[in-house]
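Show me any protein, keeping tokens residue-aligned.
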Amino acid sequence: MEILRSEQQGWLVVTVKGRLDAVSTPDFEKKVLGWTDEGARKVVLDFSGLDYISSAGLRSILLLAKKMKAVKGSLAVANPSGVVREVFTISSFDTIIPIHDSLASIIGSAD
């Protein structure tokens, strides 16, 4: 798994490539939760390169969503592949976290 960090118009953009599973989730959590501890309050997860997400990956995203809610922050997912989007839909995560087809639709739509 590869995790890249960038900033766009006040948003922390976390691009995840590969698999978010039991093996890679601890690294994902450490990095993303660390960035929110440093003050990131608007986070978008760019999943355009994510091939697979397991229940461990979903759990880490739920943990991030709860943290963002506690600090009155924003969390969104952009560009999920068909398989990843299906997992979000089946697990009803799409009712908890907004899912968009592009980064522009997130970054351009909120302050």
In short: Strands lie at 2-8, 11-20, 42-53, 74-78, 99-100. Residues 42 and 74 are 5 Å apart (CA to CA).
